[in-house]
Amino acid sequence: MNELLSDTGEAMQEPVLEVEGLRTHFFTKAGVVKAVDDVSFTVGRGEVLGLVGESGSGKSMTGYSLMGLIDPPGKIVAGSIVLDGIALRTLDAEHQRHLRGNRIAMIFQDPMMTLNPVLRIDVQMIEAILAHKHVTQEVARARAREALVKVGIPSPDERLLAYPHQFSGGMRQRVAIAIALLNRPDLIIADEPTTALDVTIQGQILYEIQKLTRETGTALIWITHDLSVVAGLADRVCVMYAGRIVEQGSCEEVLANPAHPYTRGLLDSVPANNERGQRLKQIPGMTPSLLDLPPGCPFRERCSYADAECEVSPEMRPMGGPGQSARCFHPLVPVHV
Amino acid sequence: MAIVAPSSVVERGVQSPLQRVVSDFLANPVAIFGLGLLTLVVLAAVFAPLISPQNPYDLAQLDVMDSRLPPGSPAPNGGTFWLGTDDQGRDMLSAIFYGLRISLAVGVISTVCALIIGLAMGLTAAYFGGRFETLVMRIVDIQLSFPAILIALILIAVLGQGTGKVITALVTVQWAYYARTVRSAALVEKRREYMEAARCLALSPSRIVFRHLLPNCLPPMIVVATVQVAAAIALEATLSFLGLGLPITEPSLGLLIANGYQYLLSGKYWISFFPGLALLLTIVSINLVADQLRDVLNPRLQR
Amino acid sequence: MLVFIIRRSLQSVVVLLLMSLLVFVGVYAIGNPIDILINPQADQAEREQAIAALGLDKPLYAQYFTFLGGALRGDLGKSFVHATSALGLILERMPATMELAISAMVIAVILGIPLGLWAGLKPNGVAGRTIMAGSILGFSLPTFWVGLMLIMVFAVELHWLPSNGRGPTTLLLGVIPVSFMTWDGLKHLILPATNLALFNLALLIRLTRAGTHEALLQDYVKFARAKGLTNSRVIGVHVLRNILIPIVTVIGLQFGALIGFAIVTESVFAWPGMGKLLIDSINFLDRPVIVAYLLVIVFLFILINLTVDILYSALDPRVRITESKG
Question: Which residues in A lie closer than 8 A to residue C223 (C-beta atoms)?
């Protein structure tokens, strides 16, 4: 039995999610897009993991792969996903469906698009319950109402009878969160849930989700491109680039002492980290096309530390603080021996 | 790594728009088939007098004794009635060729007239806007909410019968489609910069409309016109079948089918069936070509 | 909602008045009203008598009001051929046409939506492609030709079904004569209804397929699957409810077209409906009947459009809310 050690060296329970060597490729007419290319990480019970990266880094695709929502021409070609001891890829479609929305749930970015505009809220909530539990309509309705109360939606009875377009953006996202929590999943994947909302609402939603997951002990994978969101929220963070995880570690450690030049670049480019009146720091170049990745480190073209050594793909190695690791031949922190 | 443009971009720039359209069109085997079929039909219609074994409307050549013979029967002058004969002893094959001619002619003429009228109305409506546009488009909307056959029938009822009146009815039914299509396209084009530039140059309205607006609105019109030729042919055939279309002196395919209707029940199917088949092939080939044209001319699919 | 209905109803009345004006102008001002309304076999004295009686010697606007008055009372003239009320003749034939049109719509919906769904869910399969190719044929083929083929195959060659006419009728609700309640009646109904249905069937297949294809790309489908719902629920409830809205609109609007196309089908199958009456009237120059038919059709169309508008706003919750605010 593998025993994981937390930052302080205490023994922890078995992780709720273990991803090993995940590869999701899209077989298009133009070529093979390696959206997720050898991704491995674990999520402990009740832990909040931040999955950070620019658009096109593969972070959303990782989320979809975990949920089993990859459609042709995409396919998970390799790797294992173990949810609470259950190997997801070995299950048939029907068993996977039983876990979806039940033990593992997802919140999407744009709540207007994710709620069906022609169906009432109560219908959309009750069906999420009835798909997995054998309860009566009344019980399901009561649970739905309770969930709305928990996410802070006033007049829940009226709201249940309403349609999505009658809610504001922030309220809709709360409904989506409520739906995700309905069946008390072990893990929730939140794919940029606050990006489409006003800044003031963002803060509220962040707070709500944090509070709820702490209360219920649900683990959370928070996918975002915004480091500042991750800073206050996550326990651990994974930084993705071009389909790979290039650095992971505890949130404090990675943000204070990033190992990978890309992470450093991301941190530097946050306007708050820049000085007034000075030119904003940017990472030079553009994210590479996933169709045509050059061999070696994918960040090579844009990295000021790159040299001939980087023409070989680096492996994840522990470096820097405890629990921190990165894929880099020229990290900014000392490598563990 | 990828600083040089891929070679395919360079090659494409050399083709003129027309060349591109043609090459795209021919890339689809279904379209080639449709075009081939259509060419056959048109050729048959144009050269009908030359390729028909018999002139079916020359009464001297007809013999009532030859009437209602099944396909493949031998003809008195040594040939064969490949598709049988009708109730007057006419060779079906010849009748079909002549009928194709008339059907196609009426279809094309009415489409062209409707196109011109519809274009004119739609373009002026879009260009001048305001109340004129609203009025024209209301009329178009109301007309399009009624089925074409109904409008055509009422017009025939009011105007009376005859070739000219049938063409008038067909034109009246169709112009609205063109007006609507060209107006939508023109509205989009009106907002483009080159229109702004033309207006700044104080070009006369007719010049702006004809030299600038019109050519850019043409692609969707070509598609609509092609489909409408098929629709016009079908509508004329329907009218003739009902006895309210072209007079007997101009026997289109519809009339031939009508002639054979009464013989269906007694098993002499060929008098209706073969003209119907010819009609079918004409309409289907036009639609196949139109479908491919639509994909090829769609600006959203242009690279 | 009520405001919406009232507003639309008023608009419809205006359109109806306008159309009546159009018909009036067509008959009285452009066409020769004397020919249209008076039996051409009447002699000179009878003509002058009729002209005076019909008020044709009065100014045009006065004639219009007389016309309107007559229309409201249900008097649209007497048929030349049948010597009875033109309107009465049409109303007599209406149940037959309605039965045909409704049957055709039912066939088109029952076959069209599932086939379109299938083609939309599996667009690249053999079934999907065949369905789409078939649909192209469906609306490019002229209705009358298909009717002839149907007669040829099913009546002449196979002898399964009768080739024309309407079967025996029974009374629905004690008032309306319908033929589908008897087996013989049904046999007579199948071919013409199928013939009439084809165009709409093709249209519905294409529409449903396009709608399904588009719906499947939407996020709410992904979210529904993320909730762990069964495939049948995702498609049967989430997708279907969304595509039904435009489809219902089309069905409503196409109903008007069906009544128009019924003219052809009724002629091919000798079905005793309004359409056949119209053709006969045109052939016999029975103009009062033509005028009456026109007005009835216009009225029907306006009614259908109004119903569709109301139905649409009932189905799409988004429209309902914005309309009530406006």
Answer: 106, 108, 114-116, 176
